Amino acid sequence: MIDNNLDFDVALYPYELVTYGETGTVFQNWMQYRLIKQYLEKMTDRQTLVVESGHPLGLFRSHEWSPRVIITNALMVGMFDNPEDCEIAEEMGVANYGQMTAGGWMYIGPQGIVHGTYNTLLNAGRLKLGTGSNEDLRGRLFVSSGLGGMSGAQGKAIEIAGGVGVIAEVDPSRIRTRHEQGWVGRVSQNLDEVFDIAKSFIKKIHPVSIAYIGNVVDLLEYIVKKGINVDLLSDQTSCHAPYDGGYCPQGISFEERTRLLETDRGRFKTLVDRSLKRHFELIKALVGRGTYFFDYGNSFMKAVYDAGVTEISKNGIDEKDGFIFPSYVEDIMGPMLFDYGYGPFRWVCLSGMTEDLRKTDKAAMECIDPERRVQDRDNYVWIREAESNRLVVGTKARILYQDAAGRVKTALKFNDMVRNRAVGPIMLGRDHHDTGGTDSPFRETSNIKDGSNVMADMATQCFAGNAARGMTMVSLHNGGGVGIGKAINGGFGLLLDGREETDEIIKTASMWDVMGGVARRAWARNENSIRTCAEYNIENRGTDHITIPFLADEDLVKKTVAGALKTGKTQ
Ligand SMILES: NC(=O)c1ccc[n+]([C@@H]2O[C@H](COP(=O)([O-])OP(=O)(O)OC[C@H]3O[C@@H](n4cnc5c(N)ncnc54)[C@H](O)[C@@H]3O)[C@@H](O)[C@H]2O)c1
Predict the structure, then answer these.
(1) Which DSSP string corresponds to 506-570?
(2) What is the pTM of this model?
(3) Best residue for ligand 1 mutational test, from 107, 171, 236, 255 (most atoms within 8 Å of Cβ)
């Protein structure tokens, strides 16, 4: 899993140990890599390796059911929990920014996000454009930016969803990679040409993704000036770290951006702020014309706010009540997926054999009832088409946004296949971008409205509960996806080795990993989670029980309070 994270076909800057997200590192340095590899080679199944921000603290006695590896990354004490102090800690060699799956050794290339993006786009269409539950995005235009580690999924996802996508990218080398992989269909640096292609594909109702070599702000200027109709709009530049090179300002080339980063950080910041302000104005203009804009988990709105645009905050004062544009989780992914427990379940065929992946794809498809819910139908189509979409980069892996019961059912089937030697051993895991593993008020938990989105109890409990139930490796990080101090997120890996004991771990740990999150969402009064938990309580009577909130009648409460205030009587 470590070497897959650092594979040259997978990692963003493998020499620097960066897997994705501009700064998401597996370890701090190569010495840590070597020591950890050594420990892993010699350790027994009665020991646990402890890794603190990339540093292998050592091997400690544990037992067979304990995790073999426990990883934490950049967990800072509250008063130092900010990017500046973290950078100092990084310079002192004590902190590692592991993003999510980079430091958690569970990255599988942008395939992981293709499925999430595909789901987001399809459901955005259903919720905002009125496409039917059996329809896709045929004839619709999606515009965004970034063709890097994660953002590189956008072109592929819009094509699989049947629509037309235009994605701006300032770094030509990233475009070359995505084009060679077949993840973007067309490339141009001429905006007239870009939109001639887009219009012709919209007209003939054919999917296509077009990479625009240039700055997203220039792309939006053109769209606004020409009055082009955009259905869905987003952004996936690395805005969790805009001043560290994650966001290239309008007006300078990619090379100049790199040079300025080294020579004049102050000027670079001024240019970023100016560009973000213009970016915001252009989005506002398009939204005014009916485009649906959503923040795609890159802290874009926070970056705009930090650039000095208070207008983007909902309360016009600070960011505590969120922003005027929805985050994709707030509007789409939260209510449609996370609240039910659907999340980025994944598996890696450790044999490295295509045949194993093919067998597991088929087995996973057999575990889905496409008639159950619209999400299951999307999953069914996804896994049926997965091989032909040629999504695998690096080790043979697959992503499938399953819910708790679906994950358990699929995992049990896979473990049985391993037991019967139909396939080699399999590593199960997930991205941290999930129902239960991540507390991130600007992203995963942005649709939690009971005030608890400022807490990190859920991610911590998820991590501890997974360790207690015997996951093979567990990890907990600061800041993944959105930046230090803005999130706590955790992940896991579970080795399917065919043993009966592993079935028990699947039934307890995999179920907990998801349902702990659905339960918290239910307690926050999220409607779909309440329903899911009520069903869970019936199906698991005698073993599990989730506390269900009592929903008070708002009008009755208001009337009673108003009445009591009037008469001065409380009961
Ligand atoms: N939505 C999700 O599920 C999800 C998952 C993981 C990461 N993310 C977040 O998405 C962001 C992107 O992640 P990534 O792994 O692709 O990062 P990345 O740094 O690999 O890619 C971002 C790309 O944006 C390009 N870019 C920067 N400024 C630009 C501009 N003004 N115009 C055009 N292109 C520009 C960069 O050249 C780069 O290739 C990060 O903030 C990350 O934290 C979101």
Answers:
(1) IIIIIHHHHHHHHHHHHHTT-HHHHHHHHHHHHHTTTT--PPPPP---HHHHHHHHHHHHHHT--
(2) 0.85
(3) 236
